[in-house]
Amino acid sequence: MERPVPVPRTAVPLGITDPVQSARAELKAALAALEEKANIPRRASEAVDQKIRDVRQSAQRNPAAAAALVAGVAGLVGFAVWGIVRAYTR
């Protein structure tokens, strides 16, 4: 028994013979593709989630480098705050 292959939301299924059904399927696929492209908050969220996964994996592989990176970022933030406060108090 052969299982049907799932069709992505942005694709038009094969085998539609009715022109009205075909036009509806094409419109549905086009709208889904536009939604995929235009939904910037979701795309940004997915990119951030992927980056977090990548950073966590690299931190597990090399904890010393992760600790050095955290210390470096903390030092830069501290230096920036010190500079801002010093400029403000002058």
What's the overall average pLDDT, rounded? 89
Structural class: mainly alpha
List how many beta strands DSSP finds. 0
Strand content: under 5%
Output the number of helix runs.
3
Helical amount: over 70%
Task: Identify the overall geometry.
Answer: elongated
**Largest sheet composition:** none
Low-confidence stretches at least 5 residues in length (pLDDT < 50)? Answer: none
Protein name: DUF3618 domain-containing protein
Keywords: Membrane, Transmembrane, Transmembrane helix
Transmembrane segments: 64-85
Organism: Microbacterium testaceum
Describe this structure in words.
With 90 residues, the chain is an all-alpha fold. It has one domain. It is built from three helices and no strands. Helix 2 packs across helix 3. The chain is elongated. The chain starts with 18 loop residues before the first helix and ends with a helix. The model has no long low-confidence stretch (mean pLDDT 89).
In brief:
This protein has 90 residues and is mainly α. It is built from three helices and no strands.
Topology:
Blueprint: H1 19-38, H2 40-61, H3 63-89
Helix pairs in contact: 2-3
Short key terms for the protein model shown above:
membrane, DUF3618 domain-containing protein, transmembrane, transmembrane helix, about 75% helix, about 90 residues
